[in-house]
Amino acid sequence: MAAPHPESWIRITPEGLYCEPGDFHIDPALPVPRAIISHGHSDHARPGHGAVLATPETLAIMTARLGEGRAGESQLPLRYHEPLVQKGVRLTLVPAGHVLGSAQVVLEWEGSRLVVSGDYKRQPDPTCAPFEPVPCDVFVTEATFALPVFRHPPAEQEMRRLLESVALFPERAHLVGCYALGKCQRLIAVLRQAGWDRPLYLHGAQASMCALYERFGIGLGDLRPVPRPQKRGETVLPGEIVLAPPSAEASPWARRLADPVTALASGWMRVRQRAKARGVELPLIVSDHADWDHLLATIAEVGAPEVWVTHGREEALIHALAARGVRGRALHLLGRDEDETADDVATPEDSEAAA
């Protein structure tokens, strides 16, 4: 007997993607009795669920961000490659390469296999396990940067540009806007690899997640809070690098820094108008999502004859897949209009159901 098509056992509900035979949702947008969470960004990891299954790292991130008791009434940690059977559905978590603990959700039922990518990237990242392609019948992919204009340079290249600017303007601080979960830690690690062995300074919003990464064995080196000026009108940290949420660049907090060069690390910085509109002096094209080429390469690698597209630019990707003989389908999941960005959203209008 032929294996059932995933359309017969995976469906879209108001809460999100639902596995009917297993009776659980994946990254649901609303509270559900049983949730599988791909990673800790808030557009995927929401409060109020009953039982929550995720990697140990993701559960720790959820607890840190949501608080005890709000990250699920009960929690089930599942390590990578350790299968679990739920009502006949074999469930396995496989690295997605997005942030610490991020996972693809591999579902197998009666000979049919579907893989939900969650958010993912293919560039190397010393702070999380790399993406692992899994052959499947249906691949559910994100499409945050699914336009040919988005081709991300190596993060190492962008960090060299940052260090060159620091050398060129030693009298100025460099204030780098970056998302607190994943992007911040990746930038730190790549800066260390590039030879920056001096302290890096953190906005308070970044510090707790850096500490969590270090608890999981991800060394980040000497990290310090931004000091307060000793005298009225004085500024601090000339020649140093400060990492902060993007919103901090326009806040009074930033005035304590010595004539800061404003930088923003985001895949959206490929679009010059967005950098200009935000007043970013040093746009750094660093994303924790797959770019156009990596989306297409990944889909070819998993070999799925059918791809379901969500969380971004569905139309362009579906058109490109049709030219390659792959059937594409837009899922239009609810609750994805304003991704807290899984690292990349610069403004609400920039999100466009993206990350």
UniProtKB/TrEMBL annotation:
InterPro entries: MBL, Metallo-B-lactamas, RibonucZ/Hydroxyglut_hydro, Xnuc_lig_assoc. SUPFAM superfamilies: Metallo-hydrolase/oxidoreductase. GO terms for molecular function: exonuclease activity; ligase activity; RNA endonuclease activity. The keyword RNA-binding does not apply. The keyword Hydrolase applies. Its EC number is 3.1.-.-. It comes from the Bacteria. Keywords: Exonuclease, Hydrolase, Ligase, Nuclease. Coiled coil: none annotated. Residues 30-166 form the Metallo-beta-lactamase domain. It holds the Pfam family Lactamase_B. This is Ligase-associated DNA damage response exonuclease. It comes from Teichococcus coralli.
